[in-house]
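Hey, quick one: can you model this chain's 3D structure?
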Amino acid sequence: METYKDLQKALNAGTYVRLTLSDGEHEGFIIAVSPALVLLQAIHEWQDVGALVAPVDLVEAVEISDYHDDQINILDFNSVKRTKRYGWVRLGGWQDLFKSLQYKDKFVMLSANDDSADVGKVDTVESELVVLKAVDPGGNWYEDEIEWPFDDITLVQFDDSYSRTLQRYVEK
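Sure thing. Here's the predicted structure for all 172 residues.
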């Protein structure tokens, strides 16, 4: 519950944050948070690199510091602003998230703790899992769809360079 309060505080402050997750650190602006999920506008090397969604219970730390105020100044200099373009993302739970991503026809990258990951379109959202029409790293559709149980998902990314490029490639 303390982590959720820290995330809510960072959201309300509109400041730059560093989230520590089990898979590493991610920096950016918290765009939305629910008791279950947090949505981060991801920033890397002073560039907007898309969005990521993680379960709140996997957030190990939320860091806000004076250093991050300086980061905001550099982002302003580089014309990178906190965005509202993710207002359509629903964070009521995994089902809501994946239905909103499916509605917007977004390619997503799903990751798990065991370093497995898949990229593709949300095909079906069920009560306990999401089904992806996935793409291999060469930009070819897999013949079979891939099921991802919600309990296995540690990170969802979209609007990132990798998944956007694969989406444009397979839809050519």
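One thing worth noting: The chain has four helices and ten strands.
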